[in-house]
Design brief:
There is one protein chain. This protein is mostly helical. Helix content is about 85%, strand content about 0%. It has 5 helices and no strands. α1 runs antiparallel to α2. The chain is rod-shaped. About 5% of the residues have low confidence.
Length: about 230
């Protein structure tokens, strides 16, 4: 029941996350940071639900345990796809912010081409230097975005490896718990056998004592009757 609660919560949060990611496709540039922040908060909540699901699986010991693991794996795959898509949308938004005003330069360029015959050679060279510097700055920003994308991809890969290791540790702990439970059952069986043995011995001792008491009483009463003189002879 605990696993079902957290898995349902994770599924609903994943639905909301997917909806927010779809909003990024048609959202205006000023609204993109707000939607991305909502997605990041939803990701944190989903991770908390996943940790609760793993804890519930570790405490479960029954035929439904494998089904719970399979369901959690499906939710993890869905979560990874959403995160990858979110990072792609995040980088796309950054590129829009960087190159969104590129078309605004076309107007001055056309005006410069139209008035090129009216400009001196020094003015033409200055204009070219300015445009070259702007293009170089845009290329540097593009390279920066590429490096950030690589870092994000590396961070995602590291986190996936950590999650796999965590799942492995949970499985190891589960195996240890099963071993402890088996040993505890054996110890309880031994204690119960010793209890039954002690009870039987106690009953035997009581029976022997009763028999001894009966024999003593009978011997005392019978000896007294034998020692009484008879007057009838």
């Amino acid at each position: 029941e605990e696993f079902q609660h957290y898995s349902d919560s994770s599924s609903k949060r994943l639905d909301r996350l997917e909806g927010n990611i779809k909003k990024l496709e048609d959202a205006p540039v000023p609204s993109v940071p707000r939607i991305i922040t909502e997605c990041d908060n939803e990701i944190k909540r989903i991770r908390n639900d996943f940790e609760a699901c793993e804890q519930a699986i570790s405490e479960c010991d029954g035929p439904d345990k494998q089904d719970c693991k399979n369901k959690l794996a499906e939710l993890n795959d869905r979560f990874d796809r959403c995160r990858a898509e979110l990072e792609f949308k995040r980088q796309s938004g950054s590129q829009k912010a960087l190159f969104g005003n590129a078309l605004e330069i076309d107007g001055p360029k056309q005006e410069a081409k139209q008035n090129l015959s009216q400009m001196s050679a020094q003015q033409v060279i200055s204009r070219g230097d300015v445009l070259y510097q702007e293009a170089e700055e845009r290329m540097q920003r593009a390279f920066g975005v590429t490096e950030q994308s690589k870092q994000v991809a590396g961070a995602i890969e590291v986190e996936l490896n950590q999650q796999e290791q965590q799942i492995g540790r949970v499985e190891d702990k589960t195996q240890d718990l099963r071993g402890h439970l088996r040993r505890a059952n054996k110890i309880m069986d031994q204690i119960y056998r010793r209890y039954l043995t002690d009870k039987c011995i106690l009953c035997l001792i009581i029976c022997v004592m009763i028999v001894l008491v009966v024999i003593i009483i009978y011997g005392a009463v019978g000896g007294k009757d034998l020692g009484t003189p008879s007057d009838t002879v």
